[in-house]
Design brief:
The chain is of the alpha+beta class. 29% of the residues lie in helices and 36% in strands. Strand 4 and strand 5 form a beta hairpin. It holds the Pfam family 2_5_RNA_ligase2.
Length: 187
């Protein structure tokens, strides 16, 4: 199973962002593959391929993390690109977290995965929500300027999700996502 751990914004946040992104999706650009609204999430830990026999222990450890976590406020705002604006492969909106709870939650979910014997992608955690992937590296300065004006409403993160990604099984040969575990914050 190809897995990642994420915080998923509530439907009203997704709808607001979708309303902002919508007109941009209407301008065809063969280099841009816009992410589907139902794929929007904030990845805390990318786990890659995980044997099914490790999933139970992983779930137990993630549940323990969630039980220690208090709900916290977040807001989607701004924009950026990976690896950088001049030769981007990913266009994203930023995540404002005044309490740094998201960064700490990323650390604890990564530690839970490691203690379960699951190797976590070692990239530095940068809170973001992917808007689009680019077929080839391109300069996205104009797109970053447009999305940098986005400033969404504050919302409360209240749960942690373990999500399976099945490559090529979604619409237009994109990935299909399925939540395989969700745990409410109780701390």
């Amino acid at each position: 199973m190809r897995l990642f751990v994420a915080v998923v914004p509530p439907i009203e946040v997704v709808e607001d962002l979708s309303e902002f992104v919508g007109p941009r999706r209407e301008h065809p650009d063969e280099d841009i593959r816009w992410a589907a609204d139902d794929h929007w999430h904030i990845t805390l830990a990318f786990l890659g391929e995980v044997p099914e026999w490790k999933a139970d222990e992983l779930g137990e450890r993630l549940e323990a993390v969630a039980k220690r976590q208090r709900p916290f406020p977040l807001r989607l705002a701004g924009a950026g690109a990976f690896p950088g604006v001049p030769e981007a492969r990913v266009l994203y909106t930023g995540v404002r977290d005044e309490t740094d709870a998201l960064k700490q939650l990323s650390k604890t979910t990564r530690a839970a995965a490691n203690h379960s014997g699951v190797t976590v992608d070692g990239r530095k955690f940068v809170p973001h929500l992917t808007l689009a992937r680019l077929r080839r590296p391109i300069d996205v300065t104009r797109w970053v300027r447009v999305f940098d004006t986005y400033d969404g409403a504050e919302w409360t993160a209240g749960s942690l999700q373990l999500i399976e990604s099945r490559l090529g099984e979604g619409a237009g040969r994109s990935a299909a996502y399925a939540t395989v575990g969700e745990w409410e914050f109780l701390g």
